[in-house]
Write a structure and sequence with these properties.
The complex is a heterodimer of chains A (about 180) and B (about 210). Chain A is about 45% helix and about 25% strand. In chain A, strands 3, 4, 5, 6 and 7 form a five-stranded antiparallel sheet that branches. Chain A has a two-stranded antiparallel sheet with strand order 1-2. Chain A is rod-shaped, with a radius of gyration of 29 Å. Chain B is an alpha+beta fold. Chain B has three helices and eight strands, in the order E-E-E-H-E-H-H-E-E-E-E. In chain B, the strands form two sheets. A five-stranded mixed sheet of chain B has the order 4-7-8-5-6. In chain B, strands 1-2-3 form a three-stranded antiparallel sheet, with no helix packed on it. Chain B starts with 13 loop residues before the first strand and ends with a strand. In chain B, about 20% of the residues are buried. The model of chain B has no long low-confidence stretch (mean pLDDT about 80). The chains are: A alpha+beta (about 180), B alpha+beta (about 210). The interface between A and B is medium-sized, with 29 and 34 residues.
């Protein structure tokens, strides 16, 4: 009687052991699959933002010097020189730059997304290496929206000639994960 | 060895009778004989039957355990195979997405669409895009082979600033229906040449690809 009980108990322990091993294996597989699905924003989105800033810098404004419409790149150079030139419409390059960037970011806020994730805030800033005094005419920062949550940033250099440090344009976007 | 018993009273208590050599005597009834029947065969039969039954039970148990283990193994294999298949599909999708990301710039930079004379790496020429849109169906079909080989189902370049209404559709296999597609896009300058030089707006190039079926 005692022997039979012992044998039965041993078999039960074996069965429980098998069940535990199978459960552990299942959990390991589950953990693997969960880890795979939890991907966030990555290099592709960063490249998209980089392209966004490049396109912004090459955008041609209505500011006209000697019959040639100036790009944002040209306006940054002109505005950062300290003696902004007058565009054909009574405003100088800095005014045009500010107005265009504001309007541009405003439209991006309404319509654009980054890798199918809506952007809820922007920040565009200018700096010039360690010499910020150089950019007194340039409105050093444009902000829009609620700057909270996850963000991505990219920067681009605007060259101003051999004797001056380039202006660094930095764009930062805050995105929402629910797309 | 069988057990001898008395055929008269059925008792198994038999002893050797010392007065007669080789004769046995029943203790109960005193019956004497040189030969007594044995219960040998019956007992053996019973014992053999019992052993056979136990063996059969053990074989059955073993068979059940083997079937259970095989069933469990098959389940695990199925689960693993499904997991591997999903991983492979995901990898194929990722590779395809990466290819499309690289393709975005390559399409905009194609001599047929790209602008020249601007110090930006990738930009689209509005005049070329308009001309491409006006091409005959036969001419566009020559390009269709390129797009189809890369699983592309749609290519659109759309201005996002200042005028989002401007859009150029370079390719679309719209009549075909695909189970799963993914659209990837990026920003490019959309430029046109004027007598004062190139003037650019901001556009998005959107490429829709057919994803591998799961």
């Amino acid at each position: 009687m005692l022997k039979t009980h012992k044998k039965g108990q041993e078999e039960m322990v074996g069965f429980v052991l098998i069940v535990v091993i199978v459960a552990i294996m299942g959990l390991v597989f589950l953990a693997f699959s969960m880890r795979q699905s939890g991907k966030g924003i990555g290099g592709k989105e960063s490249a998209e933002m980089d392209d966004m800033l490049t396109s912004m810098v090459y955008y041609t404004t209505d500011c006209n010097f000697r019959g040639i419409n100036q790009s944002i790149n040209d306006l940054i150079k002109d505005c950062a020189s300290g003696t902004p030139r007058e565009c054909s419409t009574d405003n100088n390059s800095c005014d045009f730059l500010n107005a265009t960037l504001k309007s541009m970011l405003n439209q991006f806020m309404k319509t654009e997304s980054l890798a199918s994730m809506p952007i809820h805030a922007y920040n565009l800033s200018f700096s010039s290496g360690d010499n910020i005094q150089d950019l007194t005419s340039l409105n050093s920062e444009f902000s829009m929206g609620n700057q909270t949550g996850n963000s991505f940033s990219t920067s681009k250099e605007v060259f101003r000639g051999s004797n001056k440090k380039p202006v660094i344009v930095k764009l930062r976007c805050w995105y929402s994960k629910e797309g | 060895m069988g057990t001898k018993f008395c055929p008269k009273c059925g008792s198994g208590a038999l002893v050797h009778d010392a007065s007669y050599g080789g004769i046995m005597r029943c203790k109960e009834c005193g019956y004497r004989s040189a030969l007594f029947p044995e219960k040998f065969k019956e007992k053996m039969k019973k014992a053999r039957k019992k052993t056979n039954k136990k063996g059969q039970m053990k074989i059955q148990e073993m068979a059940f355990v083997l079937v259970a283990v095989m069933f469990l193994g098959a389940l695990l294999f199925l689960f693993f195979a499904q997991f591997q298949q999903r991983m492979m599909t995901e990898q194929a999708t990722t590779i395809k997405e990466e290819r499309v990301s690289a393709m975005l710039g390559a399409i905009a930079g194609m001599p047929e669409f790209g602008c020249s004379g601007l110090d930006v790496l990738v930009c689209a020429d509005e005049a070329k895009l308009s001309a491409f849109a006006k091409l005959s169906k036969e001419s566009k079909d020559n390009y269709a082979q390129i797009w189809q080989s890369a699983s592309v189902s749609k290519i659109v370049i759309q201005e996002v600033y200042p005028n989002p209404a401007v859009s150029y559709q370079l390719y679309s296999d719209a009549p075909k229906s695909h189970k799963s597609t993914k659209t990837q896009s990026t920003f490019i300058p959309l430029c046109h040449s004027s007598y004062t030089g190139a003037e650019c707006s901001i556009a998005r190039i959107k490429v829709t690809v057919i994803l591998p079926e799961t």
